[in-house]
Amino acid sequence: MKRDQVVYIPCQIRADRINEYTSNMIGILQERYKVTGVLAEPANILQMMQTKAVFLNWVEDDLDLKMKLQLLLHKAAGVKIIWVFHNKYPHDREYSERIVSNMRWLADHSSVVMLHSENSRRFIPNRNKNSRKAKYIPHVLFNKHNQSGEENKVREHYGVKETDFLFTIFGAVKPYKNIEAAIDAFQKLHLEGAKLLIAGKSADHAYALEIEERCRQDNNIILDLHFIQARLLEQIIEASDVIVMPYKDVSSMNSRVMIHSFSLGRTVISPDICMARDFKSKGFLYVYKSSLERAMKKAYMDGCAVCRMMGEEARKYMKQYHSETIVKRNVMDMLEK
Q1: Among 28, 151, 237, 300, whose CB has the most other CB atoms within 10 angstroms?
Q2: Mean pLDDT across the stretch 34-49?
């Protein structure tokens, strides 16, 4: 029987609810397989026999006895179980023995532990037992939504001069992103002709109020705490000199913000997370272990021209090693082996 189906979890259908990573990965798989987001029920052996693989993303908190049984039955039916190991621990979750146990279970019972950074191998649960299952797949670069030649008026919109050095933080405004650390560092530096733009929606009202309070008296910090449409977000990234990632290095291993920025030709300031270590020797990003303030000052002192040049080097690297063609070849090779 031909195995022409892949289960991809989560597999959102509505375009306004899907994140671009998920959309890109499903698009790659759909070139060869029918993609669904629903595991076969235990009695549906036929559907299991038609399934090539199950991809599991961010399920650590949702994994229950029913899903475990379904996954074990799929595996017994010859289905490849692929757990995508995105983070050391789910973001925005209190520490839980249940979640830690689920992560060990996923590592132990998966056929493949899929990684998006080589340096994340050392964090695989039960590493001695499960590191042999690890398969590195480059994180696919982001597609460009802007129309060719469309004028970028982001700086004008936010009142940022063309000569200003623009630091930007973008994406969902959440506590684990540690945005207050970047605000504090920026305010301590007192950099002439520098602005900090924070753009993204906050689902945590209390955290948003905290951010607003920290910035209330600072005219050099611009807050746009709303949902940012894809085209505008790209323009924001392209109008920036450097993207700041002030994340707490507790749960993070990889960063879509980093890949998105590189895809659009912008460098980043990143904590010493696994993905940053993968790229560190390439020289097109700023990596810090303890002092975000020092890293921000270094980028500012290097200047706009150097930061833009680093961003272009990052973009070239993404096109060469993280293109859809490269990722597709790696994913299909993983599925066929």
Answers
A1: 237
A2: 94
- Smallest CA-to-CA distance from 259 within 319, 177, 318 is with 318
Distance of alpha carbon 216 from alpha carbon 225, whole angstroms: 14
Backbone angles phi, psi at 33, to 5 degrees: -130, 155
Tens of pLDDT, residues 110-161: 999 999 999 999 999 999 999 999 999 999 988 766 656 678 899 999 999 9
Q: What is the DSSP string of 180-246?
A: HHHHHHHHHH--TTEEEEEES--S-HHHHHHHHHHHTT-TTEEEE-S---HHHHHHHHHH-SEEE--
Q: Which two tokens stand for residue 61?
A: 């908190």
Residue 108, helix vs strand vs coil: helix
Q: Find out whether 25 and 11 touch, Cβ atoms under 8 Å.
A: no
pTM > 0.90: yes or no: yes
Report the candidate in 18, 25, 76 with the shortest Cα–Cα distance to residue 51.
76
Of the pLDDT bands very low, low, confident and very high (cuts 50, 70, 90), residue 60 is very high
Query: Listing from the earlier edge strand, what are the strands of the sheet with 51-57?
Result: 34-36, 5-9, 51-57, 80-84, 112-115, 134-136
Cα(91)–Cα(295) distance, integer angstroms: 24
For CA atoms 10, 15, 18, 19, give the dihedral sign.
Answer: positive
Q: What burial class does residue 154 get, using C-beta atoms within 10 Å of its C-beta: 0-12 exposed, 13-18 middle, 19+ buried?
A: buried
